[in-house]
Structures are given as C-alpha cells and as structure tokens.
Amino acid sequence: MGIKVKSIGLIGLGVLAGIGMSLQFPAVAQKITNAPLPLDELRQLSDVFGLIKSDYVEKVEDKKLLTEAISGMVSSLDPHSVYLDKNAFKEMRESVQGKFVGIGIEVSMEDGYVKVVSPIEDSPAAKAGILAGDLITRLDNIPLKGLQLEEVIKKMRGQPGTKLVLTMSRKGESKPLVFPIVREEIRVQSVKAKMVAPGYAWLRIAQFQEPTVEDMVKKINALYAQDPKLKGLVLDLRNDPGGVVPGAIGVATAFLPGNSVIVSTKGQLPESKQVFYGRREFYAAPGAKADPLAKLPAALKTVPLVVLVNAGSASASEIVAGALQDYQRATVIGTQTFGKGSVQTLRQITADTAVKLTTARYYTPKGRAIQARGIVPDLLVDETAEGDGWNSLRIREADLEKHLSSNDGKPEAAKPTMEGVHEQLEEEQRLIATAKKRKPLEYGAKDDFQLQQALNHFQGLPVQLAKVDPKTDKIGAKPEIASDIKADDKKIPVQKP
C-alpha cells in the first residue's frame, strides 16, 4: 500500500460519521469520575481563553471557542472519537435510520482538499458518475480550498429537489469535471439479494442499519421462495463500512446455532466488558414483540456459505466475518479487511449535541483482536483476475494517524524505509494506471471476479488466489490456484495449475 496522508476524521453526508463506525446507544447519563481535576492545566486553558478574548485581531464568540476546545479535545484521542454539534448529531441519527437528504457521498479531508471516499450505491452522486478518489474543488462555483470539512458538508446539505453543481478534479483528466446534481432524500438500501446461478444466491449488505435484520429476513425468504433447495449462499460484505452493532449480531446469528457468542468487548468501564450472544435481546429492535429471525427457513443454518470482504469491509461487517470464520461456518474470500475493531458509544451532552467516544475494543468469539488487524480471508482473492485494482490503494485503520492499537501484544507492521517508500510509490502509480483502464466494478454482476471465485469454491472448481509472493507472503507473485483452505491456517496450501 502506498503512503497516504489523511485527515483523522471521515464524515459521510448523511452516512456514518467516521469510516467503519460501530455504535452503541446507552441511556443518556452523566458520567462523573472521582479523579481530581488537573487545576494547573485548567488554569492554562482559562488563561488562553482570556488571551484570545482580549488580544485576538477580532472578537470571537465564547460559544465558538468552547465548542472548538471540546471538539479538539475529543478528536485528539483517535480517528473515530468526535464531538457532534447540532447538525452532526441530527445527521448521525438520520444515518442510523438509513435515510437522509443530500447527494449521497462519503467525503474526507486530505491535504486541505475534500476527497470523495465513496459514492453511496444508487445515489444521485453515483448515478452522475462521481468516483472514489475524486477531489471536490468547487460547489456552485465557490472554491473550497481552505474551508473546514464541516463547512463543506453544510454547503452540500439542502432541501430535496434543489440543484448543486460540483466541480471535480480527477486523476488522469486534464480538465475539471462538472457535475450538476439534484439533492434528494437518500434511502440507503441496506440489503440486496438475487440468484446468481442455478442453486446459488447472492446476499449483499451495504451498511448495518436499524432495519437491516428485518430487511435481510425478507430478502432471504424471497430467495428460498425462488429455490427452496439452495446449494450455496454468498454473503457480500465488501465496502460495508459498518453501522449499528445489533444489525451485525442479527446477521451472524441467522447462520449460527442459537445462543452462540458473536463478539465480545473490552474497555475501561465495567459496562464495556461484555459478551454478545446470538439471542433476540441482542439484535431485535427495541419494543419488538417477535423474534425477526424466527421467520427464516431452517435450512439457512446449514447452507454452504461464503463471505466476501475487502479493505472497505469495516467494523460491524468485520464482526460478522470474524464470527462466521471462527465457527468455520463460512469460507471468507477476498482481501484483508479495514481493521476497525473499536466501539463508539454515543453520549448525549445536551438535547442537541453528543460525543461519539471510543469506549472498547472488539474481539471475535475466539478472542482475536479486530482493531488495526482486520480479518484475514481464508482464501485471498484479488478484485480482478489481473490484480486487486483500486482496493490495493485503500487506507486501512492501521494507516490512520492516532489509530488505537490492537492491544493484543503483537507488534504492528514496521514503517517502511525510504527505499521501501519509493518502491511503494512506484507500485501505487502502476496500480493507478492499470485501475483507470478498467470500468467500475458492479457487485453481483456477471463480471464480478470475486463472486465468480466464490461460485467456483461452491462447485469444487479451482479458485484463483491473490498474487502472493511465497518468500514474503506479500502481494506480487504469479497467481496460485487453491480449492481447500482451512480457516486457522496461517499459510495457504496451494495447488499449482
């Protein structure tokens, strides 16, 4: 992976504030500690506050100074802890419900520019042709250079039916690209499903939301109505950034024996040391009278299962993949996941504001740390037959500044030497040039290479593995073929064609 310089925050327009967020929603409570207040440091804060009020070139409102102080204090902890003002808190609640008004993109700040992380599937932005990696330079012909990310997001928000003109810079294009887009209420389609071959079904979860479990049940029942004797099911979690934890627990439970351990958490507070089981109280919506999973066909517990993941699979999707892998219920295929294994708890401060605070780390049923590690597939399969495409260029949790360590006692990957940096940059440029020649990947389509490898696995046919160098276990050698991989094996046994 190339060297990346990113802002520590990633904010989606109506999507999750922070990539791969997993949220818990405790009752509103004021946390009071018995630790003594650091009086000397608080005096310094007060002195700086007074200095700005008296000496700064122009007047600054008290509220602005204090709000920014709170925001800076929280965001300095890790990439996923953040202070939510009135607008951000409102967007957070909308995103969990799976609907919002906007154009449908996730954005981040990189080197002072607003960069598109990902267009949301079926959104106005996606339909207009905006791609991940595009830089937004102007909104309605107003330059964005120098603005804060929150200011840019506010400019993108608006009423349904209003038009917004985006000017974009794209690698490989000599001229700016202009996209007129009409804002609309975006309803994120959390679950998609279809038959992809006789006897084989594809189930995609794009994001874990409050309705995800019930939507999944409907889609699965529709699949079994088409073919009551399914021979295999592909659970597609690629580019799923996460979402609410109950959704992940419900999805994993659908394929596992009842009362199985799905995930555990460990943190500073007693309440953060928990074990989550495959029981109704852990995944059903508040106030639900019936178990939504009770409507699923019994055959789902034993149908052969493949889980597809990539570097964009984060947080809640890693919980699902990790649980199904630990129980050897599914074969995980794809590339190593993002590695976002921390819990964010929403603590409401006022009626309109809150703090999203990292409070614990996630662990798979076997106790494997997800944070900064991710889930390593049983079968490493590239995005295309020629290589991993844009997926090779993605940042992961371990690449983010101030990322939380895995805390599992294992050393993290060493930083590359200057020689290694040059090699990575050259490889990155080669990958960019190659990826630009390919058309955008449509998940679930006939030319979806990883999906086709999943079908090959079901049918006992050879699976084309990622190009792994046997000397270094790193991407870069000729493709290998495999058809039999064990989940706990560190090295992949291969059969050469």
From TrEMBL:
Gene Ontology biological-process annotations: proteolysis; signal transduction
A GO molecular-function descriptor: endopeptidase activity
Entry annotated with the keyword Protease: yes
SUPFAM superfamilies: ClpP/crotonase, PDZ domain-like
SMART domains cross-referenced by the UniProt entry: PDZ (SM00228), TSPc (SM00245)
Keywords from the named record: Hydrolase, Protease, Serine protease
Domain PDZ: 89-171
Matching Pfam families: CtpB_N-like, PDZ_2, Peptidase_S41
Domain of life: Bacteria
Secretion signal, residue range per the UniProt entry: none
Sequence segments annotated as region (Disordered): 475-497
Record's keyword annotation contains Protease: yes
Gene3D superfamilies: 2-enoyl-CoA Hydratase, Chain A, domain 1 (3.90.226.10), 2.30.42.10, 3.30.750.44
GO cellular component: outer membrane-bounded periplasmic space
UniProt similarity note: Belongs to the peptidase S41A family.
Protein name per the record: PDZ domain-containing protein
Source organism: Janthinobacterium violaceinigrum
